[in-house]
């Protein structure tokens, strides 16, 4: 087989950032690295792309092998290729991020690699450039959430307005007035009110809602009425 001559060997890897929401705060899923260098330290889900698979196929395979999770929203973020990012050998990594409802995937989560959820506001030091990956993913999500319903991937099929507010406050690291938030989000016509109530936090309870996806795509800018302007946020 013909090969390119005088070219340096370069390994191609995939790293996956899994963001999850538990109803109160945004979290990130981490594992303990199982081999050197950095064995035993906290890491994102990662592995090498095989010769017979595409990058997307590798990302889905690695995610399933290391966590047991599959069939989730997964988006390619950026390629990290600093020559010194991996001390063992020159390796470029195509980073992806996933968004999941933590409770929905509790039973699917594998314990083989001791995967553990950490609050995004306080998680341990990560290997290599994985911290940079997480920070970049946070910025991407903040921008995309203002134009696309990706944050609803983090919610169950039915949710309360307090849960929705907790999610947006967690993603944007800001406080939103409760009454103002409810008024504006209901005025968009993007939510369908259900007859059921969640009474886990109070006797009075809070009504469940679900997303009207048809209205959302027809009025995709509606959420801009109450989401903080991403350009003014401090990252």
Report on the structure:
The chain is an alpha+beta fold. The protein folds into two domains: 11-145, Nucleoside Triphosphate Pyrophosphohydrolase (Alpha-Beta Complex), CATH 3.90.79; 157-232, Orthogonal Bundle (Arc Repressor Mutant, subunit A), CATH 1.10.10. The protein contains five helices and ten strands; from the N terminus they run E-E-E-E-H-E-E-E-H-E-H-H-E-E-H. Strand 1 (11-21) and strand 2 (26-32) form a beta hairpin.
Task: Quickly describe the structure.
This protein is of the alpha+beta class. The protein has helices at residues 55-67, 130-145, 161-172, 178-187, 213-218, and strands at residues 11-21, 26-32, 42-43, 45-48, 73-80, 91-101, 116-119, 159-160, 191-198, 206-211. It has two domains: 11-145, Nucleoside Triphosphate Pyrophosphohydrolase (Alpha-Beta Complex), CATH 3.90.79.10; 157-232, Winged helix-like DNA-binding domain superfamily/Winged helix DNA-binding domain (Arc Repressor Mutant, subunit A), CATH 1.10.10.10.
